[in-house]
Design a protein that fits this description.
Elements lengths: L15 E3 L6 E4 L4 E4 L12 H8 L2 E3 L4 E3 L2 H6 L5 E2 L17
Bound molecules: zinc ion.
Length: about 100
């Protein structure tokens, strides 16, 4: 197997929803509350990002602070902190005037 993800397993877990600003804080669906990312957890379940991409059509990279839409891009974000949705109340701010 490949190298371990020692720093914070929650960030890579399908049951964890990262905060957009503080990725080490998020909502754990197993515990049913906001937690600080753990280094190990017996409930860990790695996210199948290809499946997420198929189902949702996009993934948000918290490391690069942008969304992407293809498997090719998924490879280039390997090891980054990804989210299919984020704990943030400004997610709906689609009419925000800031472009990039
Ligand atoms: Zn990235």
């Amino acid at each position: 197997m490949s190298s371990s993800k020692e720093s914070s397993c929650c960030i890579f877990c399908s049951k964890y929803l990262s905060n957009e600003t503080f990725q080490w804080i998020g909502y754990c669906n197993v515990e049913g509350k906001i937690i600080v990312s753990k280094t190990s957890c017996d409930k860990f379940s790695e996210v199948d990002w290809k499946k997420v991409l198929n189902e949702k059509g996009w993934i948000h990279c918290l490391t690069c602070k942008k969304a992407f839409y293809s498997e090719t891009e998924l490879m280039s974000h390997a090891g980054h902190i990804l989210a299919s949705e984020v704990c943030s109340d400004d997610v709906a701010a689609e009419d925000s005037p800031c472009g990039d």
